[in-house]
């Protein structure tokens, strides 16, 4: 019998477990400075300034509300610090909504990783295999990690800026291959577009490999470019995948709000293989900053103009019939 599966992707925007003493100037702090959460402490905001813990707690509660409103069976997240942070968030803010939590350290200098969580009520979903692609090298290059004092490490020669976390799930007699990503950011540089193109092309190769192995590939995550951007052609234009967000009205096909330019766009994707039936597509926007005027619907009560928003991204869900 067919079963419906709700798959959600959400860039939770800097879900860190880092603290900094208020009396230590920003430029003198180590990049990763862990202290026990006692005494006078604060958490650095997205912009790098200090935000009181109470405000950070409000922000992360709104992140959790957005996730719970999405009701995911499978949740892919981006911009988490590590599996320790993700497990704590699942326990403290989601009331252990998920009972399986996965993450592998990636290549990002900032220390942001990607992860996967599975709803504890979906006991019919079995994790069959996990593969990381942090060591996938650019053509003619070798992956090298350079230690930088007080800042972690810099990775050169790797295709993926973070990782392409590949997870096989067994459900309803089928094997789904999730390819969870956080592509190179848009910064106006040609090199960044080239890197994102290489990442999309490599993921397309993994999609084809999954199809050949009789699995159902699903690419999901923050691909950091709109659907018509040339860097995503291997996954959007020349691909056996579909973008279900295209089924929404044109003015609703966005998942991200960029504060500096006040623009919205689709950066977040759940791209299932075309052989799978799409039941519905939903985007939760109630956690966006009040600065976002493109959204006029209800917001969570504690959402304000800055520091309290769930994220600058929206949980994006696709319900599939498996």
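-> sequence recovered:
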């Amino acid at each position: 019998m067919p079963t419906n599966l709700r798959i959600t992707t959400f860039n939770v925007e800097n879900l860190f477990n880092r603290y900094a003493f208020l009396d230590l100037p920003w430029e003198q702090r180590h990049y990763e400075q862990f202290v026990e959460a006692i005494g006078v402490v604060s958490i650095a905001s997205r912009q790098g300034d200090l935000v009181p813990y109470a405000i950070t707690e409000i922000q992360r509660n709104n992140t959790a509300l957005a996730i719970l409103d999405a009701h995911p069976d499978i949740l892919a997240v981006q911009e988490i610090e590590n599996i320790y942070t993700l497990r704590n968030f699942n326990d403290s803010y989601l009331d252990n909504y998920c009972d399986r939590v996965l993450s592998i350290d990636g290549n990002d200098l900032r220390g942001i990783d990607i992860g996967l969580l599975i709803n504890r009520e979906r006991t019919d979903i079995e994790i069959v295999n996990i593969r990381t692609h942090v060591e996938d090298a650019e053509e003619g290059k070798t992956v090298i990690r350079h230690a930088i004092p007080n800042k972690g490490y810099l990775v050169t020669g790797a295709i993926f800026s973070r990782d392409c976390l590949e997870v096989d799930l067994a459900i309803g007699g089928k094997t789904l291959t999730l390819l969870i990503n956080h592509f190179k950011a848009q910064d106006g540089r040609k090199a960044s577009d080239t890197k994102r193109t290489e990442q999309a092309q490599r993921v397309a190769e993994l999609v084809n490999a999954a199809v050949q192995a009789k699995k159902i590939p699903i690419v999901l995550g923050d691909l950091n470019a709109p659907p018509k951007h040339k860097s995503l052609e291997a996954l959007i234009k020349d691909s056996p995948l579909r973008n279900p967000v295209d089924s929404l009205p044109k003015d609703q096909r966005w998942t991200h709000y960029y504060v500096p330019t006040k623009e919205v766009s689709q950066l977040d994707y759940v791209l299932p293989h075309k052989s799978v039936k799409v039941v519905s597509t939903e985007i939760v926007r109630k956690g966006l900053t009040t600065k976002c005027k493109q959204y006029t619907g209800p917001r969570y009560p504690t959402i304000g103009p800055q520091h309290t928003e769930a994220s600058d991204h929206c949980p994006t869900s696709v319900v599939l019939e498996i």
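Residues 190-212 form the longest helix (23 residues).
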